Amino acid sequence: MDQVVLISGHLGAGKSGLARLLEEEFEYHRFSSSDFLKQEATRRGLRADRRSLQGLGDLLDIETGDQWLYQAVRQRAQTLAPAARIVVDSVRTRKQLDHFRKDHYLPCLHVHLFGKTLALQKRFDQRPNHDADHEEYVKADLIKSEQDIEGFKNDADLRVNTTRNDSRDTLARLAASLGLVSAPDVRCVDVLVGGQYGSEGKGHVVAYLAKEYDVLIRVGGPNAGHTVLGPTGQYTYHYLPSGSKDAKAKLLLGPGMTIFVPGLLEEIEQCGVGPDRLFIDPQAMIIEQFDKDNEAGVKKSIASTASGSGAASARRITDRGLGSVRLARDVPELRPYVGEAEPYRGSTSRQLEIAYRKRHSVFLEGTQGSGLSIFHGRYPHVTSRDTNVAGCLAEAGISPSRVRRILMLVRPTPIRVANPDGNQGASSGRLKHETTFRDIALEVGLDPDELEMNEKTSTTKRNRRVGWFEWEQFRSACALNAPTDIVLAFADYVSAKNREARRFEQLTPETIKFVEELERVAQASVSLINTRFPRGPEADGDIRTIIDRRNWTARTS
What we know:
Elements: E1 3-9, H1 15-26, E2 29-31, H2 33-44, H3 50-64, H4 68-77, E3 85-88, H5 94-101, E4 108-114, H6 117-125, H7 137-140, H8 146-155, E5 158-161, H9 167-177, E6 189-194, H10 202-210, E7 215-218, E8 226-230, E9 233-237, E10 250-253, E11 258-259, H11 261-271, E12 278-280, E13 285-286, H12 289-294, H13 296-302, H14 309-318, H15 335-338, H16 348-358, E14 362-365, H17 389-396, E15 403-410, E16 415-417, E17 434-435, H18 437-444, H19 448-454, E18 464-467, H20 471-481, E19 485-488, H21 509-522, E20 525-530, E21 546-548
Parallel strand pairs: 1-3, 1-4, 2-3, 4-5, 6-14, 6-15, 7-10, 7-14, 10-12, 11-13, 15-19, 19-20
Antiparallel strand pairs: 8-9, 16-18, 17-18, 20-21
């Protein structure tokens, strides 16, 4: 037995509530003194009301020399795994406690709850199962001996005044005493961000890595689509982490997400994801139809996807307290994934705390690209959030000290979406060395028609503008994100021959030189290289497109 927590305290101090929280939050096995006495009363043919159970407890103390509680818990412990933990929700006498303390093979921690008598009596009177005859609090309370009260006070490893601490305050203090909270030096989060203007190929890379992780978390909104070809076919994810259909990890949607409910529900159904895997933070912002309508002007001026993400994010700030903002917790259709009330099952911070405590591996999938950051991109041709690693961590609620690896994804030919409606007077943003996909295809040996067909945006299916690699922009993204690893996608855009490469040395000499220069400028290794994107008929079912040069996995530190 790993540990037994013994809870003592007057009636109404919160013993049962604390025991239930330990059971729910930390997987303790709860031993209910009351339930044990009810079973014993049934066996003896006795009544099971409060007074009768109290009398039975007194009788058992006499019959066993105050050992019945210890014996019952010890018997329960023998049926559990060696690392199991038990919480006993009520120890009522010092003699009962002493029997636990004398067993050196049953490690115990004693928590004593206390409070002002009037406050505890009020709680007792307000209980929904309060006896119909309104039994007096003094008679109902199990602790009557001043000697027991003083004994509990002196023996306790932790004493908590529950008139000044609610049940979750008490749990936080107890969890710390039990060593159940995660240490701040637990680094188990890996993050992937785009290093350019989005559409770098994040989805395919995330799906490749997803199988290694226990938890996948995504930030952003439906304005970013991540396309994946996996065992179940090609799919574009707008809300769920990429690869959700094929991975087994727990899925989290962070509080910074913007969600259009019909779109998310459709994606959940298509991916076959249930509440057992998906957890949506209650604070995630809901996109309304009028948010999408309001972005029509932005769509025309800077080639926005008009998904409503920007308008919803702005409204979250400007409409505080006006009653027009809906969060995920306010949507009945999302409650299976969010939860009904605090502490919500979908709380990202709660789920991450569990992951840290269990040292589970976490993968955070960023949105869009560094050059589209509302703060660091070339305004006004930017998105509605910070797309760099710091912004993604903030939206997810992850401390930088939890981060282990930062992966930054780039392509040899950065892209922007086409100018709105072909209007040359408008612009979707600057490309320093703009060219055409046809010119790229002819230079590197690809089919120009195939390239133009494939290079459409995942969300709006618009054509893209394209340019040659921008080293200055790449270095700026490296400074903002300090990546530990560079991921290169679209290696076939350096040379079509790379499509046949399965090992690094099989890449063309020109490609290897490009990789080496990326490493010099970034001061980080190019750990993953995507040689081609398996799309449509040309995929032939072969999804082995990534050259993996990592010296680490999700399971290594």
